[in-house]
Amino acid sequence: MKIVVAIGGSILLKEYDCKKFQEYSAILKDLATEHELFVVVGGGKPAREYISVVRDLGAGEAQCDDIGIEVTRINAKLMLSALGDAAYQRVPHNFQEALEFSATGKIIVMGGTEPAHSTDAVSAILAEYVQADKLINLTSVDGMYTKDPNKFDDAELVPEITATDLLEFLSGKDVKAGTYEFFDTTAVQMIKRSDLETVITNGFEPENLIKAVNGENIGTKIINE
């Protein structure tokens, strides 16, 4: 299969060490023996901190986005360092470059692309662009909940949802640079129009990536209409 894997920066850099990069590197290398892989890395806490500084300096949202994008590309370079020869050792700055680099047969790792596109959106657009079979989004929660599980004990995990219903759930959420809601509306719109098989699950357990690739019931699956 051709698979796009989005890994939240908050997963990789919850602690400022190399542990999660190493764990994901081992799994990605193993999966790459059977699948064609594209990895999109988020900015996480470092991006939010830099964005906060530049916003306090009076920058507009597009400039804040630009700073965040640079951080995602640094995180992508860290992942490339972990993957070594298994990955193409350049970070694509757009989708055409990602497609071109994939001709090498190696794992492709990228960050953001342009303002107003979160790495959720980038991963969904990339999946459509390269005609991926599956999108796996590894985030800081187990999947989609009926309400914020960090605030409400009665929040329930939603195992399946249509893209239309997910768009309705996300309507009115904050879209400023560096903010994080459960998922990005642009990403969901891309998933809907391309009928893309998508799984959103907890990335703090790297083995969840293997389970998602193998089609196990894990996290939240965005299903066809």
How would you characterize this protein structure?
- α2 (19-31) crosses α4 and α7 runs antiparallel to α8 (185-194).
- The chain is α/β, with parallel strands linked by helices and 225 residues long.
- The strands form 2 sheets. It has a 7-stranded mixed sheet with strand order 3-2-1-4-8-9-7, sandwiched between helices. Strands 5-6 form a two-stranded antiparallel ribbon.
- The protein has helices at 9-12, 19-31, 44-56, 61-83, 95-101, 119-129, 163-170, 185-194, 207-213; strands spanning 2-7, 36-41, 108-110, 134-139, 144-145, 157-158, 160-162, 198-202, 220-223.
- The two termini are 22 Å apart.
- The protein is globular and about 45 Å long.
Quick synopsis:
By secondary structure, the chain is α/β, with parallel strands linked by helices. The protein is 43% helix and 16% strand.
Number of strands: 9
Return the string of H and E elements: EHHEHHHEHEEEEHHEHE
Spans of at least 5 consecutive residues whose pLDDT stays below 50 are: none
- Strand percent estimate: 15-25%
Per CATH, the superfamily is Acetylglutamate kinase-like
User: What is the general shape?
Assistant: globular
Rg value = 16 Å
Helix content: 40-55%
